[in-house]
Design goal:
By secondary structure, the chain is mostly beta strands. It contains no helices and eleven strands. The relative contact order is 0.31.
Length: about 120
């Protein structure tokens, strides 16, 4: 099994920045993809950004492209989400996820971290 622990959420003013971290442990050699998702109150969970376990391929939701950057520290088995130019609509609980299968289905989840953006 893979365990994921997020950190780095908090309160920030609109236009500010935050960096989220997700530390993976356990059977990390089974991971194909890592992703960040978010869920705002009353809304569905949505994909934010993803990165291959090798770190050489990334993808982003259109709403965050150019503002958020996903990266990975291979030595620490940690994935980061650098969030710049934050907007009130970015406010949500952010979840880290791992796909431990070649199909790319996310099946391991962290507990989530709250990001609050004040206007």
């Amino acid at each position: 099994q893979v365990q994921l622990v997020e950190s780095g959420g908090g309160l920030v003013q609109a236009g500010g920045s935050l960096r989220l971290s997700c530390a993976a442990s356990g059977r990390t050699f089974n991971i194909y993809l890592m992703g960040w998702f978010r869920q705002a109150p009353g809304k569905e969970r949505e994909f934010v950004a993803g990165i291959s376990w090798s770190g050489d391929s990334t993808s982003y939701a259109a709403s965050v492209k150019g503002r958020f950057t996903v990266s990975k520290d291979n030595a620490k088995n940690t994935v980061y989400l650098q969030m710049n130019s934050l907007k009130p609509e970015d406010m949500a609980v952010y979840f880290c996820a791992a796909a431990v299968n070649a199909a790319g289905k996310y099946d391991a989840w962290g507990q989530g971290t709250q990001v609050t953006v004040s206007s």
